[in-house]
Write a structure and sequence with these properties.
about 280 residues; alpha+beta; Metallo-beta-lactamase, Chain A; 7-stranded mixed β-sheet; globular
Length: about 280
Protein backbone atom coordinates (compact mmCIF):
# COMPACT_ATOMS: atom_id res chain seq x y z
CA UNK A 1 0.00 0.00 0.00
CA UNK A 2 1.32 3.43 -0.91
CA UNK A 3 1.26 6.49 1.31
CA UNK A 4 -2.33 7.67 1.63
CA UNK A 5 -3.35 11.27 2.19
CA UNK A 6 -6.44 12.68 3.88
CA UNK A 7 -7.53 16.25 4.39
CA UNK A 8 -9.24 16.90 7.73
CA UNK A 9 -10.38 20.52 7.72
CA UNK A 10 -7.17 22.54 7.37
CA UNK A 11 -4.92 19.59 8.26
CA UNK A 12 -3.15 17.29 5.83
CA UNK A 13 -2.75 13.74 7.18
CA UNK A 14 -0.53 11.08 5.63
CA UNK A 15 -0.76 7.35 6.31
CA UNK A 16 2.80 6.01 6.38
CA UNK A 17 4.26 2.56 6.89
CA UNK A 18 7.50 1.45 8.56
CA UNK A 19 7.02 -2.07 7.20
CA UNK A 20 5.45 -5.35 8.27
CA UNK A 21 5.86 -8.00 10.93
CA UNK A 22 4.15 -11.24 11.96
CA UNK A 23 2.53 -12.19 15.27
CA UNK A 24 0.75 -15.32 16.45
CA UNK A 25 -2.82 -15.23 15.20
CA UNK A 26 -4.25 -16.79 18.34
CA UNK A 27 -2.56 -14.20 20.52
CA UNK A 28 -3.82 -11.40 18.30
CA UNK A 29 -7.46 -12.49 18.63
CA UNK A 30 -7.59 -13.72 22.22
CA UNK A 31 -10.66 -15.79 23.02
CA UNK A 32 -11.95 -15.64 19.43
CA UNK A 33 -11.41 -19.08 17.83
CA UNK A 34 -9.35 -19.50 14.69
CA UNK A 35 -12.40 -20.73 12.77
CA UNK A 36 -13.69 -17.15 13.03
CA UNK A 37 -10.58 -14.97 12.78
CA UNK A 38 -9.14 -16.88 9.83
CA UNK A 39 -12.01 -15.51 7.74
CA UNK A 40 -10.17 -12.18 7.94
CA UNK A 41 -6.56 -13.37 8.17
CA UNK A 42 -4.77 -16.36 6.76
CA UNK A 43 -1.97 -17.67 8.99
CA UNK A 44 1.40 -19.01 7.91
CA UNK A 45 2.75 -22.43 8.91
CA UNK A 46 3.75 -21.04 12.30
CA UNK A 47 0.23 -19.68 12.87
CA UNK A 48 1.45 -16.10 12.42
CA UNK A 49 -0.50 -13.36 10.66
CA UNK A 50 0.83 -10.39 8.70
CA UNK A 51 0.53 -7.03 10.43
CA UNK A 52 1.64 -3.60 9.31
CA UNK A 53 3.50 -0.88 11.18
CA UNK A 54 1.39 2.16 10.36
CA UNK A 55 2.08 5.74 11.38
CA UNK A 56 0.34 9.04 10.75
CA UNK A 57 2.07 12.27 9.82
CA UNK A 58 -0.09 15.32 10.51
CA UNK A 59 0.67 18.72 9.01
CA UNK A 60 -1.23 21.48 10.79
CA UNK A 61 -0.83 25.19 10.13
CA UNK A 62 2.06 25.40 12.58
CA UNK A 63 3.28 21.88 13.46
CA UNK A 64 4.36 18.60 11.93
CA UNK A 65 3.23 15.74 14.19
CA UNK A 66 4.14 12.06 13.90
CA UNK A 67 2.07 9.34 15.56
CA UNK A 68 4.01 6.09 16.20
CA UNK A 69 7.48 5.23 14.90
CA UNK A 70 7.20 1.51 14.12
CA UNK A 71 9.84 -1.10 14.91
CA UNK A 72 12.79 0.93 13.69
CA UNK A 73 16.23 -0.36 12.75
CA UNK A 74 17.78 -1.55 16.02
CA UNK A 75 16.05 -4.90 16.59
CA UNK A 76 18.53 -7.76 16.96
CA UNK A 77 18.67 -10.52 14.30
CA UNK A 78 16.98 -13.11 16.52
CA UNK A 79 13.88 -10.94 17.03
CA UNK A 80 13.86 -9.93 13.37
CA UNK A 81 13.57 -13.61 12.53
CA UNK A 82 10.99 -14.45 15.21
CA UNK A 83 8.69 -11.66 14.03
CA UNK A 84 9.62 -11.93 10.32
CA UNK A 85 10.16 -8.18 10.20
CA UNK A 86 10.24 -6.46 6.81
CA UNK A 87 11.20 -2.81 7.25
CA UNK A 88 10.22 -1.55 3.85
CA UNK A 89 9.42 1.10 2.80
CA UNK A 90 10.69 2.36 6.18
CA UNK A 91 9.30 5.29 8.13
CA UNK A 92 12.12 7.81 7.66
CA UNK A 93 12.29 7.04 3.95
CA UNK A 94 8.53 7.56 3.64
CA UNK A 95 8.75 10.90 5.42
CA UNK A 96 11.53 12.06 3.11
CA UNK A 97 9.56 11.07 0.03
CA UNK A 98 6.91 13.54 1.13
CA UNK A 99 9.50 16.31 1.11
CA UNK A 100 10.03 16.49 4.86
CA UNK A 101 13.14 15.93 6.97
CA UNK A 102 13.43 14.26 10.38
CA UNK A 103 14.32 17.69 11.80
CA UNK A 104 10.99 19.08 10.58
CA UNK A 105 8.97 16.97 13.04
CA UNK A 106 7.82 19.02 16.04
CA UNK A 107 6.07 16.28 18.04
CA UNK A 108 6.20 12.48 18.15
CA UNK A 109 3.32 10.69 19.88
CA UNK A 110 3.72 7.13 21.14
CA UNK A 111 0.42 5.46 22.05
CA UNK A 112 2.49 3.29 24.42
CA UNK A 113 6.05 2.00 24.65
CA UNK A 114 5.91 -1.52 23.23
CA UNK A 115 8.76 -2.07 20.80
CA UNK A 116 6.58 -2.17 17.68
CA UNK A 117 5.23 1.32 18.41
CA UNK A 118 8.32 3.24 19.45
CA UNK A 119 11.28 1.38 17.94
CA UNK A 120 11.87 4.20 15.49
CA UNK A 121 12.11 6.80 18.26
CA UNK A 122 15.86 6.25 18.23
CA UNK A 123 18.54 4.84 15.93
CA UNK A 124 22.08 3.53 16.26
CA UNK A 125 24.78 5.49 14.45
CA UNK A 126 28.06 4.17 13.01
CA UNK A 127 29.76 4.58 16.39
CA UNK A 128 27.12 2.45 18.09
CA UNK A 129 25.56 5.44 19.84
CA UNK A 130 21.78 5.46 20.24
CA UNK A 131 20.39 8.84 19.25
CA UNK A 132 16.94 10.40 18.80
CA UNK A 133 15.65 9.92 15.26
CA UNK A 134 13.71 13.19 15.42
CA UNK A 135 16.16 15.51 17.21
CA UNK A 136 13.97 18.63 17.20
CA UNK A 137 10.78 16.93 18.36
CA UNK A 138 9.16 16.57 21.74
CA UNK A 139 8.11 12.98 22.34
CA UNK A 140 4.66 12.78 23.94
CA UNK A 141 4.46 9.89 26.42
CA UNK A 142 2.10 9.21 29.30
CA UNK A 143 4.12 9.58 32.51
CA UNK A 144 2.74 6.42 34.07
CA UNK A 145 3.34 4.43 30.88
CA UNK A 146 7.00 5.47 31.10
CA UNK A 147 7.21 4.42 34.74
CA UNK A 148 5.63 1.07 33.93
CA UNK A 149 7.94 0.53 30.95
CA UNK A 150 10.96 0.93 33.23
CA UNK A 151 9.59 -1.65 35.69
CA UNK A 152 7.52 -4.15 33.69
CA UNK A 153 6.29 -7.48 34.98
CA UNK A 154 7.78 -10.73 33.76
CA UNK A 155 4.75 -11.21 31.50
CA UNK A 156 5.44 -8.09 29.45
CA UNK A 157 9.15 -7.48 29.92
CA UNK A 158 9.99 -8.58 26.37
CA UNK A 159 7.69 -5.90 24.93
CA UNK A 160 9.63 -3.00 26.44
CA UNK A 161 13.10 -2.29 25.03
CA UNK A 162 14.62 0.62 26.93
CA UNK A 163 16.88 1.71 24.08
CA UNK A 164 13.72 2.82 22.26
CA UNK A 165 12.80 5.47 24.81
CA UNK A 166 15.29 5.92 27.65
CA UNK A 167 17.85 7.89 25.56
CA UNK A 168 15.18 10.51 24.82
CA UNK A 169 15.28 11.66 28.43
CA UNK A 170 19.04 12.22 28.23
CA UNK A 171 18.50 14.67 25.37
CA UNK A 172 15.60 16.45 27.09
CA UNK A 173 13.10 15.46 24.42
CA UNK A 174 10.37 13.81 26.52
CA UNK A 175 7.14 15.65 27.26
CA UNK A 176 5.41 13.65 29.97
CA UNK A 177 1.63 14.02 30.04
CA UNK A 178 -0.88 12.75 32.58
CA UNK A 179 -4.25 11.90 31.09
CA UNK A 180 -5.90 13.77 28.24
CA UNK A 181 -3.81 16.63 26.89
CA UNK A 182 -3.93 18.96 23.89
CA UNK A 183 -0.55 18.77 22.17
CA UNK A 184 -1.16 21.31 19.42
CA UNK A 185 -4.23 23.17 18.23
CA UNK A 186 -6.67 20.44 17.25
CA UNK A 187 -4.47 17.49 18.26
CA UNK A 188 -5.14 15.81 21.61
CA UNK A 189 -3.99 12.61 23.28
CA UNK A 190 -6.74 10.78 25.19
CA UNK A 191 -6.45 7.88 27.58
CA UNK A 192 -7.72 4.57 26.21
CA UNK A 193 -6.80 1.95 28.83
CA UNK A 194 -6.87 -1.79 28.37
CA UNK A 195 -3.93 -2.82 26.24
CA UNK A 196 -1.81 -1.13 28.91
CA UNK A 197 -3.06 0.91 31.85
CA UNK A 198 -2.01 4.19 30.24
CA UNK A 199 -2.38 3.47 26.55
CA UNK A 200 -3.37 6.64 24.70
CA UNK A 201 -5.16 7.31 21.42
CA UNK A 202 -4.97 10.51 19.39
CA UNK A 203 -7.91 12.73 18.47
CA UNK A 204 -7.46 15.15 15.59
CA UNK A 205 -10.07 17.89 14.98
CA UNK A 206 -10.26 20.62 12.37
CA UNK A 207 -13.21 22.55 10.98
CA UNK A 208 -15.75 20.15 12.45
CA UNK A 209 -14.10 16.99 11.13
CA UNK A 210 -12.53 14.39 13.44
CA UNK A 211 -9.96 11.63 12.96
CA UNK A 212 -9.18 9.18 15.76
CA UNK A 213 -5.99 7.10 15.81
CA UNK A 214 -6.85 3.85 17.58
CA UNK A 215 -3.40 2.51 18.43
CA UNK A 216 -3.69 -0.96 19.96
CA UNK A 217 -7.23 -0.36 21.19
CA UNK A 218 -8.38 -1.72 17.81
CA UNK A 219 -5.19 -2.77 16.02
CA UNK A 220 -6.83 -3.84 12.74
CA UNK A 221 -10.22 -3.56 11.09
CA UNK A 222 -10.75 -7.26 11.94
CA UNK A 223 -10.73 -6.32 15.65
CA UNK A 224 -13.80 -4.11 15.44
CA UNK A 225 -16.04 -6.69 17.16
CA UNK A 226 -16.29 -6.09 20.89
CA UNK A 227 -14.96 -9.55 21.93
CA UNK A 228 -12.05 -9.29 19.48
CA UNK A 229 -9.43 -8.34 22.05
CA UNK A 230 -5.78 -9.35 21.95
CA UNK A 231 -4.24 -11.72 24.48
CA UNK A 232 -1.50 -9.10 24.72
CA UNK A 233 -3.94 -6.73 26.44
CA UNK A 234 -3.15 -6.53 30.15
CA UNK A 235 -6.68 -5.49 31.09
CA UNK A 236 -9.12 -6.93 28.51
CA UNK A 237 -12.26 -5.84 30.36
CA UNK A 238 -10.96 -2.28 30.33
CA UNK A 239 -10.35 -2.64 26.60
CA UNK A 240 -13.98 -3.70 26.21
CA UNK A 241 -15.26 -0.66 28.11
CA UNK A 242 -12.98 1.68 26.19
CA UNK A 243 -14.06 0.28 22.82
CA UNK A 244 -17.73 0.80 23.69
CA UNK A 245 -17.06 4.34 24.86
CA UNK A 246 -15.28 5.49 21.73
CA UNK A 247 -17.39 3.52 19.26
CA UNK A 248 -20.51 5.39 20.27
CA UNK A 249 -18.75 8.75 19.95
CA UNK A 250 -17.27 7.75 16.59
CA UNK A 251 -20.70 6.90 15.21
CA UNK A 252 -22.45 9.93 16.69
CA UNK A 253 -19.81 12.40 15.45
CA UNK A 254 -18.94 10.58 12.19
CA UNK A 255 -15.25 10.09 12.99
CA UNK A 256 -12.69 8.68 10.61
CA UNK A 257 -10.63 6.13 12.51
CA UNK A 258 -7.04 5.14 11.76
CA UNK A 259 -5.51 1.70 12.28
CA UNK A 260 -2.07 0.95 13.67
CA UNK A 261 -1.55 -2.60 12.33
CA UNK A 262 -3.98 -3.16 9.49
CA UNK A 263 -2.07 -4.25 6.36
CA UNK A 264 -4.90 -3.29 4.00
CA UNK A 265 -6.47 -0.14 5.41
CA UNK A 266 -5.14 2.98 7.04
CA UNK A 267 -8.58 4.48 7.61
CA UNK A 268 -12.19 3.49 8.16
CA UNK A 269 -15.53 4.49 9.65
CA UNK A 270 -17.40 2.61 12.35
CA UNK A 271 -20.99 1.60 11.67
CA UNK A 272 -23.50 -0.33 13.75
CA UNK A 273 -25.68 -3.03 12.22
CA UNK A 274 -28.14 -4.31 14.79
CA UNK A 275 -26.02 -5.07 17.84
CA UNK A 276 -22.78 -5.51 15.90
CA UNK A 277 -20.15 -2.96 15.00
CA UNK A 278 -18.68 -2.96 11.52
CA UNK A 279 -15.87 -1.14 9.74
CA UNK A 280 -16.33 0.54 6.41
CA UNK A 281 -12.93 1.22 4.79
CA UNK A 282 -12.37 4.89 4.06
CA UNK A 283 -10.15 6.48 1.47
CA UNK A 284 -10.09 9.63 -0.61
Amino acid sequence: MKTEKLVIGSFEIYGLRDGYFYLDGGAMFGIVPKTLWQKSYSADRQNRIKLSLNSLLIQTKKDLILIETGIGTKLDPKLLEIYAVKTKPGLVSSIRKLGFNVKDVNFVINTHLHFDHCGGNTYKNEKGEILPTFPKAKYIIQKEEWTHALHPSEREKASYLKENFLPLEKYGLVWFVEGNKEISDGVEVVLAPGHTSFHQCVKVQSQGKILFFLGDLVPTSAHIGLPYIMSYDLFPLDTLKTKKKYYEKAIEEDWIVAFNHDPDYYFGKIKKEGEKYKIKPYST
